[in-house]
């Protein structure tokens, strides 16, 4: 699988389930598509090789599946002033919009050794903004939904509900 490839899955089917790496899916995952986490992680690992990290030497790569089946990726890009460093999730969201928009349905993040990383709080909010409801994340503690890792989040769905 390469960035820009499409996975053949049906996001509209209520019977597809995620395949976690080490444990059975949680009840909240029963409405999600079948995700090939190994293939998605491989895309994140490839993206990580492009990270610009001359200061921390801590490369990060991310990959996600969009609701239309596209696979997108990103890496972190540091800056000498540190505060201007771009997390890999920022590159991912830029790629999302540069390649046609949509909503994220599955996401993974890896470090330079290929280990799973949990996105920071800022990046969780960024992912929430662009997520499909119930988006899955591969985390250090297994497969979780966006609502599990950012409970009671404020975002587009909050504003839509308010407008009704």
Name the features.
164 residues; alpha+beta; five-stranded mixed beta sheet; 5 strands; 20% strand; globular
What does this structure look like?
The chain is of the alpha+beta class and 164 residues long. The chain has 5 helices and 5 strands; from the N terminus they run αββαβαββαα. The protein has helices at residues 37-48, 88-98, 121-129, 146-149, 156-163, and strands spanning 60-66, 71-75, 104-111, 131-139, 142-145. The chain has a 5-stranded mixed β-sheet. A hairpin with a 2-residue loop joins strand 4 (131-139) and strand 5. It starts with 36 loop residues before the first helix and ends with a helix. Mean pLDDT is 86; it is low at 8-30.
Quick overview of this protein structure:
This protein has 164 residues and is of the alpha+beta class. It is 27% helix and 20% strand. The chain is globular.
Sheet of most strands = 5 strands, mixed
List segments where confidence is low: pLDDT < 50 over at least 5 consecutive residues.
8-30
Q: What overall form do the CA principal axes indicate?
A: globular
* Arithmetic mean of pLDDT: 86
The structural class is: alpha+beta
**Estimated share of beta-strand residues:** 15-25%
Distance between the termini: 40 Å
* Estimated helix fraction: 25-40%
Give the tally of β-strands. Answer: 5
**C-alpha Rg, in Å?**
15 Å
